[in-house]
Design goal:
Strand order of the largest sheet: 2-1-6-5-4-3
CATH architecture: Roll
Distance between the termini: 22 Å
Number of domains: 1
Number of helices: 3
Radius of gyration: 14 Å
Structural class: alpha+beta
Strand content: over 45%
Number of strands: 6
CATH topology: Nuclear Transport Factor 2, Chain: A
Largest sheet: 6 strands, mixed
Shape: globular
Order of helices and strands: HHEEHEEEE
Pfam families: SnoaL_2
Protein name: SnoaL-like domain-containing protein
Oligomer: single chain
Length: 122
């Protein structure tokens, strides 16, 4: 599990969507729970791919650094520091070149040697 998480985060940091998808179960469930934007939930690898490709376009760079990791039998919790630079203006308040710095937690579930659920809290 630790190897899968580290490989996923390395692909994420490289903005390598194909590398991320290779590690996901076909029936993956992804949730992003934000204290400012609410909850986004998607089901399936195709929907995840669409979201991931759109997300890559938003940033000129992005990095998740692991602060701590707790592993269970088929689950894991990872505390991360997230840093990113916007590639495009998102609003009057969020402009290209602005940086984001967020601390968050990601919960992973695994099935058949793949990531079957990923829930990000920020």
């Amino acid at each position: 599990m630790k190897d899968l998480i580290e490989a996923y985060l390395a692909a994420y940091n490289r903005m390598d969507v194909i590398g991320m998808l290779d590690l996901l179960h076909d029936d993956v469930v992804f949730e992003n729970v934000s204290n400012t934007d609410g909850v986004l939930t998607i089901h399936g690898k195709a929907a995840f791919a669409e979201l991931a490709h759109r997300s890559v376009e938003l940033f000129s760079e992005r990095t998740q650094l692991v602060r701590s990791m707790v592993l269970g039998d088929d689950v894991a919790a990872v505390e991360v520091d997230y840093h990113a630079t916007l590639a495009h203006d998102l609003s009057d308040a969020k402009k290209a070149g602005d940086t984001l710095a967020i601390r968050g937690v990601s919960f992973f579930r695994f099935k058949d040697g793949k990531i079957s659920q990923l829930t990000d809290y920020s």
